[in-house]
Amino acid sequence: MMKKPGMLAGGLVGALCTAPLISLFYLGRELAGLPFVPFDLFDWATRMLPGPVVTFGIDLMVSVIRALSSGETSVIAKTAEQLIALAQFLVIGVVAGMLLFAILRMRKKSGYLPGLILGAFITAPIALVSPSISRMERTDAIISFSWILVAFLAWGAALTWVYRSMAAAGGEPDVDDSSVQRLGRRKFIIRIGGASAVITVSGAVWAALVAKRRERETKVDPAALWSSNNPLPNRDASVKPAPGTRPEFTRLQDHYRIDINTSPPEVEGARWRLKIGGLVDRPLELTLDDLRNKYEPMHQFVTLSCISNPLGGSLISTTRWTGVSLQQVLKDVGIAENSNHLRIKSADGFHEVIALEAIRADERIMLTYAWDGVPLKAEHGFPLRIYIPDRYGMKQPKWIESIEAIEQWEEGYWVRRGWDREARVRATSVIDTIALNMMIAQADETTLVPIGGIAYAGARGISKVEIRVDSGEWLEAELRSPLSGTTWVIWRFNWPFKAGKHTFTVRCVDGSAAQQIETEAAVHPSGATGLHTTAGVY
Ligand SMILES: Nc1nc2c(c(=O)[nH]1)N[C@H]1C(S)=C(S)[C@@H](COP(=O)(O)O)O[C@H]1N2
Ligand SMILES: [Mo]
């Protein structure tokens, strides 16, 4: 006679029942926009964990990615996050399976009640913490809650059924299922594994096909992009980028992405309203069309950088932003005398606070609804985000839902988690290329090798870039006139080639004559500083 199945079996069966559950949630999301629980749980955890832990996790992930690959850090980071979220959920399933088997083992009769109770017990906290449910309208939230409840009840029942089948072989009196007896426990588990794999894979494939189709449908037509139809304003600039320098204008699909969401919040444009309230004379609700049509559109070439961008990193991009000056919109609401700040809240629970003084002083601060001539992509903040010159991305909410005029300054999302209050962009310069394959022969028999890259100092602009070869003198590079006063500047230095092992170092001076900080500092808490170098045998 076989023994009752124990915790080890519980863990295994937990995994085998949780994998199809993940697939089912994926299908639910793609077919009906229901919450994808594994990501919700992960997102909740990142919002709840103490700031230093999250920061450590992000830093670690960015360094591992940079050490292991040359791909786009932000894309790989999102994928890694998603895999961690799935693993986390699977582990919860394993632990719950162990727990359930342990409980069932202790009971004389293994009815379905403990499994159902476990399913319900798991649902309650998940539904409570799910950031996607908390963002929903009431009825949608109820539907989503019910879906999660039913899914977990089914999961609890499935686990129990497997337990009972296995226990039957162990001679449990009230269970008369003899299939396990016939098959043997090992074969039975293999069958369960097979069924689990079939459901998991077919569900995931179906969901992926639905997702692919929607992606095709919502794909932006390249012909609609501003950059497909217009030359860049500095096309005639005399300084040409050294071959191999990153594109001066980042293609939309290549723009880095960083936010606190494993998958971006999906905001429905037609139902969305920008609510402006708090200490104002006339609270306002604006539709997307109001923003597009009632106000003079404003276009700005903008370089956006993440404060977590390491020295020479790829979390920095440039495109053309379109929106309305916040000054214009605020005129219509009438800010009350006693109001000093605006609190901006986003659909994902992110928030930031900006001083009204800063807005009054800078008409470039802009509510942005389009990038490169088309509506913002979901992951970049559709329908509305803000642009604040000279600040890192952490100060600039995407997916904006409301703006409230308030009296006192408050900490924003990342400030509360230990990052810089101002998050003013620190000057940085980067070597992108030593273009050895593009040597320029000179009349005097020397050869020049173009070296190039970018320099960026927020809205302060760049006044000088210098290059040092090995421990030689600092030599001035040429500056290409930039797309605007707030974008990165492309620099180029024609290096008189000398074969051998060399180290190249770059530094810059910003538009207010301040030298780039040479002391090395990590990204936390105020952005990376230090000089970028490239070394090799040439
Ligand atoms: N609502 C919301 N806005 C946000 C964030 C976020 O997590 N949620 N992340 C910020 C950070 S840290 C950066 S660097 C920029 C990145 O914008 P992008 O992903 O469009 O490049 O968005 C900012 N705005
Ligand atoms: Mo960021």
Can you tell me about this structure?
The protein is an alpha+beta fold and 538 residues long. Helices cover 38% and strands 21% of the residues. A five-stranded mixed sheet has the order 2-1-10-5-6. A hairpin with a 5-residue loop joins strand 12 (440-441) and strand 13. Molybdenum atom (MO) binds at residues 258, 306-308, 393-394.
Report the radius of gyration as a whole number of Å. Answer: 28 Å
- Content of β-strand: 15-25%
Total number of β-strand segments?
A: 19
Individual helix count? 13
- What's the mean pLDDT score? 94
Biggest β-sheet: strands ordered side by side in the sheet:
2-1-10-5-6
Low-pLDDT segments, ≥5 res: none
Major sheet summary line: 5 strands, mixed
Helix content: 25-40%
Q: Specify the overall morphology.
A: globular
Distance between the termini: 75 Å
Instruction: Identify every distinct bound molecule in the structure, by name, code or SMILES.
Output: the ligand Nc1nc2c(c(=O)[nH]1)N[C@H]1C(S)=C(S)[C@@H](COP(=O)(O)O)O[C@H]1N2, molybdenum atom
* Structural class assignment: alpha+beta
Task: Give a brief outline of the structure.
The chain has 538 residues and is α+β, with helices and mostly antiparallel strands. The protein has helices spanning 7-32, 37-48, 51-68, 73-106, 113-129, 131-134, 138-169, 179-183, 185-218, 226-229, 288-293, 326-333, 356-361, and strands spanning 274-278, 284-286, 298-305, 316-325, 341-346, 351-355, 366-371, 374-375, 385-387, 400-406, 428-434, 440-441, 447-456, 462-469, 474-476, 478-479, 489-496, 501-510, 532-537. A hairpin with a 4-residue loop joins strand 5 (341-346) and strand 6.
